[in-house]
Amino acid sequence: MSNKVATYARVSSTEQSGKTQTEKHNGILYFDEISGAVEFKERKWAKKLLKDIENKKIDTVYVKAIDRLGRNTLDVLQTIQHFTENGVNLISEREGLQTLTSEGKENPTAKLIINILASVAEIERNNIKERQMEGIAIAKLEGKYKGREGRKPLTTNQLLKKYSAVVKEIKAGQGIRRTARLCKVSIGTVMKVDKALQLT
User: Fold this and answer.
1) What are the residues whose beta carbons fall under 8 Å from the beta carbon of 175, sequence distance 6 or more?
2) Active site residues
3) Which of 58, 62, 166, 195 has the least C-beta neighbours within 10 A?
C-alpha cells in the first residue's frame, strides 16, 4: 500500500459520531462535521485534503460511501474528476469500487456507478425537500404554520450578539457539531455564525 493514503469522513448531525467511518481508517484522517449539501471544496478538512492532493502528498483516498463526498450530483462528480485529474484513486468501501485501475487509468465501470449513485442521492434529497414543502402546505391550511413571513433578517452584529455563546465556542476552536451540541442550537445556526465571524 502507498504511504500517501488518506481517509475522508463526514457527519452532518449531532446524532452521528462518525465512529464507523473513522475507527479503522486508512492513512491520514480528514474528518468534517458539516452538511453534505455544502460543496466539498468549501469544507474545512476537505480543503486541506485537496491542498495535500495538489501538493502530491496523497494518491489514494478511502471513503465509507460515495455520499460522504456530498449530496449534490454535480459537486460529487466534480470532486471525483478533480481526484482523477490529479492521479488520485478514490476507493469507496460500501460500493466496493475504485476510480482508477491498477494501471492508473480511469475505471469506466466505477464512473458509471458513481454517476448513478450520485443521481440517486440527489433525487432522495429533492424528495425530502418536497415532503417538507408538502408538510408546510398542510400546516398552513390547518393554521399551524408561522413561517418567517414579516421577519427582517438579522444583521451580522445582531446575529453575533444573539448567539454570543456560539461565537465564544467557535473562537475557542470547537468544531461545528460540538458547538451546536454545547449551545443547543442547530448546525445551520453555527455555520451562519461562523460565516458572520469571517466577515467581521
Assistant:
1) 33
2) 12
3) 195
pLDDT 10s digits, 31-88: 998 888 889 999 999 999 999 999 999 999 999 998 899 888 778 888 998 999 999 9
pTM: 0.58
Structural domain including 87 reads 5-117
Grid coordinates of 77: 462528480
Residue 143 CB coordination number (10 Å): 7
Hey, what's the cell of 116?
448513478
Which residues of the chain are under the pLDDT cut of 50?
Answer: 15, 150
Alpha helices, H only, 8-107: 19-22, 44-54, 73-85
Domain end, chosen from 67, 87, 117, is at 117
Is residue 124 within a helix (H) or strand (E), and if so which, with residue range? helix 108-141
Residue 170 shares a structural domain with residue 110: no
